[in-house]
Amino acid sequence: MEKRSLKVEVRAAADDPTCIEGYAAVFDSMSDDLGGFREMLMPGCFTRALERGNDILCLLDHDKRQLLGRTSSGTCKVMQDDRGLKFRCSMPATRLGQDVMELIKRGDLSQCSFEFGMDPDDDDAELWSEEKDERGNYFVKRTIRSVAFLGDCSVVLQPAYQATSVAVV
Q1: For a tag site, which of 31, 97, 124, 134 has the least CB within 10 Å?
Q2: Residue 167 within a domain
Protein backbone atom coordinates (compact mmCIF):
# COMPACT_ATOMS: atom_id res chain seq x y z
CA MET A 1 0.00 0.00 0.00
CA GLU A 2 1.10 3.54 -0.70
CA LYS A 3 0.43 6.46 1.63
CA ARG A 4 0.38 10.12 0.66
CA SER A 5 -0.13 13.07 2.94
CA LEU A 6 -1.14 16.67 2.66
CA LYS A 7 -2.47 19.49 4.74
CA VAL A 8 -6.17 19.09 5.29
CA GLU A 9 -8.89 21.58 5.91
CA VAL A 10 -10.46 20.42 9.16
CA ARG A 11 -13.42 22.09 10.79
CA ALA A 12 -15.70 21.41 13.70
CA ALA A 13 -19.13 21.59 12.12
CA ALA A 14 -21.59 24.02 13.71
CA ASP A 15 -24.28 21.32 14.11
CA ASP A 16 -21.83 18.72 15.44
CA PRO A 17 -18.91 20.16 17.42
CA THR A 18 -17.27 16.72 17.53
CA CYS A 19 -17.10 16.36 13.76
CA ILE A 20 -14.02 17.01 11.62
CA GLU A 21 -13.96 17.40 7.87
CA GLY A 22 -11.35 18.17 5.33
CA TYR A 23 -9.46 17.11 2.24
CA ALA A 24 -7.21 14.07 2.40
CA ALA A 25 -6.07 14.80 -1.17
CA VAL A 26 -6.22 17.82 -3.48
CA PHE A 27 -6.21 17.51 -7.25
CA ASP A 28 -3.53 19.15 -9.40
CA SER A 29 -1.17 19.76 -6.46
CA MET A 30 2.39 18.47 -6.43
CA SER A 31 3.65 16.27 -3.60
CA ASP A 32 6.95 16.64 -1.84
CA ASP A 33 9.81 14.39 -2.97
CA LEU A 34 8.65 10.83 -2.33
CA GLY A 35 12.04 9.18 -2.67
CA GLY A 36 13.18 10.07 -6.15
CA PHE A 37 9.90 11.27 -7.63
CA ARG A 38 7.00 13.63 -7.00
CA GLU A 39 3.39 12.98 -7.83
CA MET A 40 0.19 14.75 -8.79
CA LEU A 41 -3.41 13.54 -8.56
CA MET A 42 -5.68 14.16 -11.52
CA PRO A 43 -9.29 15.29 -11.02
CA GLY A 44 -11.59 12.29 -10.72
CA CYS A 45 -8.82 9.81 -9.92
CA PHE A 46 -10.72 8.43 -6.89
CA THR A 47 -13.90 7.49 -8.79
CA ARG A 48 -12.96 3.83 -9.24
CA ALA A 49 -11.87 3.35 -5.64
CA LEU A 50 -14.99 5.00 -4.22
CA GLU A 51 -17.25 2.89 -6.45
CA ARG A 52 -15.79 -0.25 -4.83
CA GLY A 53 -17.60 0.66 -1.63
CA ASN A 54 -14.98 -0.86 0.66
CA ASP A 55 -14.66 0.19 4.31
CA ILE A 56 -12.46 3.31 4.48
CA LEU A 57 -11.03 4.11 7.90
CA CYS A 58 -10.33 7.49 9.51
CA LEU A 59 -7.17 7.07 11.60
CA LEU A 60 -4.48 8.98 13.44
CA ASP A 61 -1.15 8.61 11.61
CA HIS A 62 -2.32 5.54 9.61
CA ASP A 63 -2.36 3.53 12.86
CA LYS A 64 -5.24 1.03 12.84
CA ARG A 65 -5.03 0.97 16.64
CA GLN A 66 -6.02 4.66 16.64
CA LEU A 67 -9.40 4.47 14.93
CA LEU A 68 -11.46 7.66 14.73
CA GLY A 69 -14.23 6.45 12.42
CA ARG A 70 -15.07 4.26 9.44
CA THR A 71 -17.39 4.29 6.49
CA SER A 72 -18.94 0.88 7.29
CA SER A 73 -20.34 2.19 10.58
CA GLY A 74 -21.42 5.53 9.12
CA THR A 75 -19.10 7.51 11.41
CA CYS A 76 -16.95 8.60 8.45
CA LYS A 77 -18.01 9.72 4.99
CA VAL A 78 -15.54 9.95 2.11
CA MET A 79 -16.39 11.58 -1.21
CA GLN A 80 -14.76 13.17 -4.22
CA ASP A 81 -15.61 16.69 -5.37
CA ASP A 82 -14.08 19.19 -7.80
CA ARG A 83 -11.29 19.98 -5.32
CA GLY A 84 -10.25 16.52 -4.22
CA LEU A 85 -10.90 13.68 -1.77
CA LYS A 86 -13.08 15.05 1.01
CA PHE A 87 -13.91 13.32 4.27
CA ARG A 88 -16.10 14.01 7.27
CA CYS A 89 -15.71 12.07 10.51
CA SER A 90 -17.86 12.15 13.62
CA MET A 91 -15.24 11.89 16.35
CA PRO A 92 -15.60 9.26 19.08
CA ALA A 93 -16.27 10.32 22.67
CA THR A 94 -13.01 8.65 23.72
CA ARG A 95 -9.76 10.03 25.06
CA LEU A 96 -8.26 9.63 21.58
CA GLY A 97 -11.16 11.47 19.94
CA GLN A 98 -10.99 14.31 22.49
CA ASP A 99 -7.20 14.57 22.20
CA VAL A 100 -7.24 14.66 18.40
CA MET A 101 -9.98 17.34 18.40
CA GLU A 102 -7.98 19.46 20.88
CA LEU A 103 -4.77 19.09 18.87
CA ILE A 104 -6.63 20.09 15.70
CA LYS A 105 -8.16 23.12 17.42
CA ARG A 106 -4.72 24.20 18.66
CA GLY A 107 -3.20 23.72 15.20
CA ASP A 108 -0.78 21.02 16.38
CA LEU A 109 -2.43 18.51 14.04
CA SER A 110 -3.18 20.33 10.82
CA GLN A 111 -2.58 17.91 7.97
CA CYS A 112 -3.81 14.64 6.52
CA SER A 113 -2.80 11.68 4.44
CA PHE A 114 -4.49 8.87 2.56
CA GLU A 115 -3.67 5.22 1.98
CA PHE A 116 -4.26 3.95 -1.54
CA GLY A 117 -3.50 1.14 -3.93
CA MET A 118 -3.01 1.06 -7.69
CA ASP A 119 -4.18 -1.64 -10.08
CA PRO A 120 -0.96 -3.21 -11.46
CA ASP A 121 -2.85 -4.39 -14.55
CA ASP A 122 -4.11 -0.92 -15.48
CA ASP A 123 -1.44 0.69 -17.66
CA ASP A 124 -3.47 3.91 -17.94
CA ALA A 125 -3.80 4.44 -14.17
CA GLU A 126 -0.53 6.37 -13.93
CA LEU A 127 1.87 8.23 -16.16
CA TRP A 128 5.58 8.72 -15.48
CA SER A 129 7.40 11.68 -17.03
CA GLU A 130 10.39 13.93 -16.58
CA GLU A 131 9.54 17.54 -15.71
CA LYS A 132 11.35 20.77 -14.90
CA ASP A 133 10.75 22.58 -11.62
CA GLU A 134 10.60 26.36 -11.13
CA ARG A 135 14.41 26.50 -10.82
CA GLY A 136 14.97 24.58 -14.04
CA ASN A 137 15.93 21.31 -12.32
CA TYR A 138 14.59 18.07 -13.74
CA PHE A 139 12.58 15.64 -11.63
CA VAL A 140 10.55 12.47 -12.17
CA LYS A 141 6.79 13.06 -11.98
CA ARG A 142 4.13 10.43 -11.41
CA THR A 143 0.66 11.51 -12.50
CA ILE A 144 -2.07 9.39 -10.93
CA ARG A 145 -5.13 9.06 -13.15
CA SER A 146 -7.03 6.25 -11.39
CA VAL A 147 -6.77 4.86 -7.86
CA ALA A 148 -8.07 1.30 -7.45
CA PHE A 149 -8.29 1.14 -3.64
CA LEU A 150 -8.65 3.55 -0.72
CA GLY A 151 -7.73 2.26 2.73
CA ASP A 152 -7.82 5.32 4.98
CA CYS A 153 -7.92 9.06 5.45
CA SER A 154 -5.59 9.89 8.34
CA VAL A 155 -4.85 12.96 10.40
CA VAL A 156 -1.02 13.11 10.41
CA LEU A 157 1.95 15.14 11.58
CA GLN A 158 4.08 14.89 8.43
CA PRO A 159 2.27 14.96 5.09
CA ALA A 160 3.65 14.31 1.62
CA TYR A 161 1.39 17.01 0.13
CA GLN A 162 1.52 20.67 1.22
CA ALA A 163 -1.47 21.79 -0.87
CA THR A 164 -4.10 23.06 1.57
CA SER A 165 -4.50 25.02 4.77
CA VAL A 166 -6.41 23.95 7.85
CA ALA A 167 -9.09 25.60 9.95
CA VAL A 168 -11.09 24.63 13.00
CA VAL A 169 -14.28 26.63 13.43
Answers
A1: 134
A2: no
Query: Which range marks the domain in which residue 32 is found?
Result: 2-156
**Terminal-to-terminal C-alpha distance of the chain:** 33
Domain count, the chain: 1
pLDDT tens, residue by residue, 85-121? 999 999 999 999 999 999 999 999 888 889 999 999 9
The pTM (predicted TM-score) of the whole model is: 0.86
- Residue 102 in any domain: the answer is yes
- Angle, CA 7 vertex, CA 12 and CA 139 arms, to 5°: 165
